[in-house]
Amino acid sequence: MRASQKDFENAMNQVKLLKKDPGNEVKLKLYALYKQATEGPCNVPKPGVLDFINKAKWDAWHALGSLPKETSRQNYVDLVSSLSASSESSGQVTPAADRKQPGSDALVVTSQDGITTITLNRPDKKNALTPQMYHDIMLALEAASKDDSAIAVLTGNGDYYCSGNDLTNFTDIPPGEVEDRARSGAVLLRDFVDCFIDFPKPLVAVVNGPAVGISVTLLGLFDIVYATDRATFHTPFSHLGQSPEGCSSYTFPKMMGPSKVIFGNLKTKCNVISIPKATEMLVFGKKLTAREACTQGLVTEVFPDSTFQKEVWVRLKAYSKLPPNAMRISKQVIRNREKEKLHAINAEESSILQERWLSDECMNAIVNFLSKKAKL
Ligand SMILES: CCCC/C=C/CC(=O)SCCNC(=O)CCNC(=O)[C@H](O)C(C)(C)COP(=O)(O)OP(=O)(O)OC[C@H]1O[C@@H](n2cnc3c(N)ncnc32)[C@H](O)[C@@H]1OP(=O)(O)O
Fold first, then answer.
1. Residue 187 CB less than 6 A away from ligand 1
2. 119 CB under 6 A from ligand 1?
3. According to the per-residue pLDDT averaged within each range, which of 17-31, 96-110, 173-187, 332-346 is highest?
4. Transmembrane residues, as ranges (predicted)?
């Protein structure tokens, strides 16, 4: 049943009666849904980067894309009613707890047992990332950094962890807007990766299946990476006419070590082979198995697929009971001295990628994928 105008007005009044502050993430969602329900898609200019509050509000509204007014009204009413119910039953509102985020079914955020879990939920598209998902993940991380969970987890629903950037993001661009789109894509990428660099609590990737592109490169910014033995790790940037992101141009060589020199068999007089593993992945697009990725330091531990979920969640529940402040501070000690460098690398990679997106090599690769001529 669709929410009526009366239901919508009641919900607006109910918001004022909430006993507990629902937190910034939920307030932004409410704001965005209210604007979308009353004014339709975001049609105002984007505020400047230093206008943090209005930019966050604009981002939240803009992320709703062309969501119809009636659906936005319904989502607003549903969200308020879930907030009212939880603030009455437990006296506590957990951001996005155990429910799909309104406006986007493609991301599910739950909070339980001290763990906030962000699940990519587009299994039919191998969890490829749309612009809305990038925005929702940023909002979810922002909320998770402030909620009372001890750790945060990113995982995927279905047989894939994530197939990287949704390549249809490059379609339907009106002529004359290609450069603008590349520019805004680079800003989105930079903001997105910045959220991972700055995330203050232990961040865990539960890699439930193959991972491609940005979902692989980001792993260098996680604190733990658990993978099923079915997972593979693939960064086919050259094949796509693109270049590395997610700070991988720095984190991968650092974790995988310098060139590994392998001497050929003396009898057959092979030449010396000396290609750093990171280069083999990021330049030549070599796909690693989970065990290879573990040997290279990208994955913390590999589990048999049959027991993966059980073993990983038992482990994570135990970790989430450790003193949260101690974990947060230890992470800071480990990571903080690298932060400034990582932000600079992220900015540089994003701007190089902005150029690559405009190249013939990249455009041809996207056309080939979309016309089903090429698959990885
Ligand atoms: C603004 C930030 C930008 C950040 C930039 C990041 C760079 C990257 O992430 S580069 C990596 C981009 N990803 C890819 O190139 C992967 C492309 N996908 C594939 O090669 C294959 O789909 C697969 C190997 C992942 C899976 O092959 P499989 O045969 O098992 O399944 P499919 O039938 O191909 O897939 C099912 C369904 O999903 C669609 N799909 C999968 N991945 C993507 C994707 N990345 N973008 C768009 N669509 C994707 C695929 O087209 C199928 O759709 P249909 O059922 O409608 O045909």
1. no
2. no
3. 332-346
4. none
What is the CA(34)–ligand 1 centre distance, in A? 33
Ligand 1 centroid to Cα of residue 165, in Å, is: 8
Positions of CATH 1.20.80.10 in the chain: 5-86
177 Cβ partners below 8 Å, 6+ apart? Answer: none
From residue 328, alpha-carbon distances to 144, 192, 201, 234 in Å are 13, 21, 5, 30
Per CATH, is 5-86 categorized as 3.10.310.10? Answer: no
246: Cβ below 6 Å to ligand 1? no
ipTM, two decimals, is: 0.99
Shortest CA distance to 103 belongs to which of 42, 14, 169, 181? 42
Nearest to 279 by CA among 304, 254, 307, 310: 254
Closest-CA residue, ligand 1 atom 54, reads 125
Judge contact between 117 and 153, C-beta under 8 A: yes
The best mutation among 191, 212, 282 to test binding of ligand 1, ranked by most ligand atoms within 8 Å of the C-beta, falls on 212
- 126 close to ligand 1 (CB < 6 Angstrom): yes
What confidence category does residue 6 fall into, taking pLDDT thresholds of 50, 70 and 90? Answer: confident
Domain boundaries for CATH 3.90.226.10 within the chain: 107-374
- How many angstroms is it from 48 CA to the middle of ligand 1? 33
CATH of domain 107-374: 3.90.226.10
More confidently predicted of 21 and 251:
251
| Token pair listed for 246 | 């997610």
Q: Please report, as a single letter, which amino acid is at residue 297.
A: G
Instruction: Write down the pLDDT at residue 240.
Output: 95
